[in-house]
Amino acid sequence: KAGVTQTPRYLIKTRGQQVTLSCSPISGHRSVSWYQQTPGQGLQFLFEYFSETQRNKGNFPGRFSGRQFSNSRSEMNVSTLELGDSALYLCASSLTRGADTQYFGPGTRLTVL
Amino acid sequence: AQTVTQSQPEMSVQEAETVTLSCTYDTSESDYYLFWYKQPPSRQMILVIRQEAYKQQNATENRFSVNFQKAAKSFSLKISDSQLGDAAMYFCAYRRFTGANSKLTFGKGITLSVRP
């Protein structure tokens, strides 16, 4: 069974631009969570989607948004990019919510210049 | 709010030796899950081992085992017969058993190096 895939793997943007990252979960998995990883803040939860609905949201500004499609694929969008948005963005999928283990994708490395 | 603490930023072990990585957490919940994830230089986060808080028996996966002390809120990872491929960053993580907030809360991570 294929793992979690994320596209693109690397991205370079400039301040003020917007960006969209994509995540395809493991086949059959319906829950998708997003995390931001930076050297200073570590791994921080962004949001979780299940059945096309945002179920949880972390402490991030409204510039960070996401959505989930009927096939469970998810996208996250960051508008008006800031230098501090440079990070590794990780997507994780699980069968359902709650007790299930989350399996991570390889991440998208975003660099904001 | 739940917190996860990994106080040792770096550790080193000789190949074939055993190493223990420490993790403590704070929660008021009685049911939860604890995880150890490995992140090698490729940055892919890989699940190493998972422990359910309601289970008294410590989880084991091949060379990896945990020492789960619920009362002390301690969750350490023991790696036996260390291999060069074990070199990576290791993250301890907490997740509530069920409920609305099922996010993973991570510690800061430990960088493990393996000496040949």
Overview of this protein structure:
The complex is a heterodimer of chains A (113) and B (116). Chain A is mostly beta strands. Helices cover 0% and strands 53% of the residues of chain A. Chain A has no helices and 11 strands. Chain A is globular, with a radius of gyration of 13 Å. The termini of chain A are far apart. Chain B has 116 residues and is mainly β. Chain B starts with a strand and ends with a strand. The A-B interface holds A 33, 35, 42-43, 45, 48, 55-56, 58, 88, 90, 92, 97-99, 101-107, 109 and B 33, 35, 37, 42-47, 50, 91, 95, 97-109.
Order of helices and strands of chain B: EEEEEEEEEEEE
Supply Rg of chain A: 13 Å
Structural class of chain A: mainly beta
Please provide the count of β strands of chain A: 11
Largest interface: A-B, 23 and 25 residues
User: Over the alpha carbons, how many angstroms does the gyration radius of chain B reach?
Assistant: 14 Å
Strand content of chain B: over 45%
